[in-house]
Write a sequence for this structure.
């Protein structure tokens, strides 16, 4: 059975952090006797069909993005990231620690 993490399923923050799980991440429940193991689904798989990826690459090759447009998108992305960080309570001083923790998790997986 696979389920998207939502409010009815409560996994303590310390456990999620240690396991590298994030809210909204798809997980698989494996049951063996009375033990339940929660395993993240393969998130390395792209959510986009290969045709979409190839179309985007082709468009970018044929008509590269201007510096002005790239700067505009960068500013929009930064503003969105700031808004999301504020929403979940991430402070600027936490960013370096979060990056290092994320890299450490990737190295061990």
């Amino acid at each position: 059975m696979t389920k998207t993490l939502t409010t009815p399923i409560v996994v303590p923050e310390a456990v999620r952090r240690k396991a590298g799980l994030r809210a909204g991440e798809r997980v698989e429940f494996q049951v063996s006797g009375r033990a339940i193991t929660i395993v993240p689904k393969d998130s390395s798989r792209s959510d986009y069909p290969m045709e979409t990826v190839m179309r985007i690459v082709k468009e970018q090759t044929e008509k590269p993005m201007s510096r002005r447009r790239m700067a505009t998108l960068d500013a929009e992305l930064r503003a969105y990231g700031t808004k999301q960080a504020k929403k979940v309570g991430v402070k600027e001083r936490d960013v370096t620690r979060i990056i290092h923790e994320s890299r450490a998790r990737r190295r061990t997986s």
Q: What stands out?
A: Residues 1-45 form one domain. The chain has a mean pLDDT of 81.
